[in-house]
Design goal:
326 residues, mainly alpha, 68% helix
Length: 326
């Protein structure tokens, strides 16, 4: 429904954001310097190409919302084995396949261009870290191989924290607010540089949003109240947006995501999400598009570097549609 559609839109935004990597490849691969300034889509939707980071943060909040819906309302928490198998089956097979594909592409790139494509730290050590989802746990030498997996690597640790939370603590608004507060403290202590703490903030903000939503009546004045809160939130964010680069995102973006998720869930609960069920496939393919778009992009860059296609194609608006279609 609507939540799946939102997840799909977030994935689409990441693809737009990463399209810009075509413009800073190896000298033989990238278009001529300054050519990106003529990239027509920038003139019509330049804002969409700058929101990739926020889209990843939204992914984390959606995950927290959905996880509490699936696991937090059960009579008892799932066993550790069930939880692990579910997460492993969902995440690892595609990660393993795309990791091997990217490793093959980088080996070919070293032979052809004497350099890597997009991500540079492609050694055996970092391959081992990627193999165990540990590429963003503080042990790496930089982004490597299928770089976007960094977000999943961080989220895997938060999934473990979430499992311990539902097993050891009473699941309610107060305890979730405490988890969110701990995440905010960790972000403050690390000055926002620790991605694990940052993920925890957005994940548990999403979980808290679901906990609040689950307490609300499904129809009547509450719906209007949530809509009013959403409008007030948007108005406030417009004002804060004037100072977005001076205020930490953790102070204004999580509340915005929480309001959005509660509003969307309320609309679905009132039967307003029916038309969007046709777009559920967008959400269903969000993980696959997130992991496959970098190997596809690397392969296109390699074709440009070997002369099969012209690098100048990358700054053609229609080629963006080709990339998104692939």
């Amino acid at each position: 429904g609507l939540i799946d559609s939102l997840r799909g839109i977030a994935a689409f935004t990441v693809l737009l954001f990463h399209y810009q990597r075509f413009f800073f490849g190896l000298p033989l691969i990238a278009p001529a310097p300054g050519a990106a300034a003529n990239f027509a889509p920038y003139h019509y939707a330049d804002w969409a190409f700058s929101l990739g980071g926020e889209a990843v943060l939204l992914f984390w909040s959606i995950s927290g919302f959905v996880f509490l819906h699936v696991y937090g309302t059960q009579s008892r928490a799932p066993t550790g084995r069930t939880f692990f198998v579910n997460r492993f089956a969902r995440l690892y097979p595609l990660h393993f396949i795309t990791l091997l594909v990217v490793a093959g592409i980088q080996i070919l790139a070293m032979g052809l261009f004497n350099g890597s494509i997009i991500y540079q730290a492609n050694d055996l050590y970092n391959f081992g870290l990627n193999l165990f989802f540990a590429s963003e746990w503080g042990f790496s030498h930089g982004r490597s191989f299928n770089g976007p997996i960094w977000s999943v690597s961080v989220a895997v640790l938060i999934y473990a924290v979430f499992y311990l939370y539902i097993r050891l603590l009473r699941v309610n608004v107060l305890s979730l607010a405490g988890m969110l507060l701990l995440g905010l403290i960790a972000v403050a202590l690390t000055e926002g540089r620790n991605l694990i703490a940052l993920c925890a903030v957005y994940f548990f903000a999403g979980s808290l949003a679901y906990a609040v939503f689950a307490l609300l009546p499904r129809r009547g004045a509450v719906t209007l109240g949530i809509a009013a809160a959403w409008l007030l939130g948007v108005g406030g964010m417009v004002l804060i947006g004037q100072h977005r680069h001076t205020l930490p995102m953790t102070l204004w973006l999580p509340p915005l995501f929480m309001l959005a998720l509660m509003l969307i869930a309320q609309i679905e609960a009132c039967g307003g999400g029916g038309p969007f069920r046709r777009l559920q496939w967008l959400g269903d393919m969000s993980y696959s598009s997130y992991l496959w778009h970098t190997p596809i992009q690397m392969a296109l860059m390699m074709l440009a570097g070997t002369g099969v296609i012209a690098p100048s194609l990358f700054v053609q608006g229609w080629f963006l549609l080709v990339f998104l279609g692939l």
